[in-house]
Amino acid sequence: MNHVPQIPSPPAEAQDRPGRDRLWHPRGTLCAVCTARTRGFGWFDPHRPRRDRTQARRWFCSMGCQAAFTHKARKGLSMVDFTEEETQALPAVMRALAPEMERIGWDRPLGQLTQNDMHRLIVTTIEAFRAEMAEIAAETEIPF
Predict the structure, then answer these.
(1) Sign of the Cα pseudo-torsion (87, 92, 95, 98, in order)
(2) Is the pLDDT of residue 131 over 70?
(3) 3-state secondary structure of 29
(4) Which of 24, 83, 91, 113 measures 20 to 30 Å from 55, CA to CA?
């Protein structure tokens, strides 16, 4: 019996597809639904030809976002247009932004905001939208 640990050699390049082996998950991409960091949940359109699938892949941060995107894709909705749920979330975002805008001043142009003020506006907007979308998604039934 040999007690020396055996370290496997790195996999050799496949003869039938040279240069194609790579990590399956693209690092640094954002969730297609909520723009959080992706965590390994993916989607592609199985009805497209294989060569076009790489451009049509979407990555998600959670199974909830993946399910929401899949539900919209089955309905044929695009992620660019506002859906009914996203439109319902907008008033909550406006309510969250109002105190920040009061603090900054409603008459102040965006170009004159400091970096910290702009950062607070962006973070407040995104967090309020994500929270409201999560609440709306929890209320609606996912079809699978």
Answers:
(1) negative
(2) yes
(3) coil
(4) 83
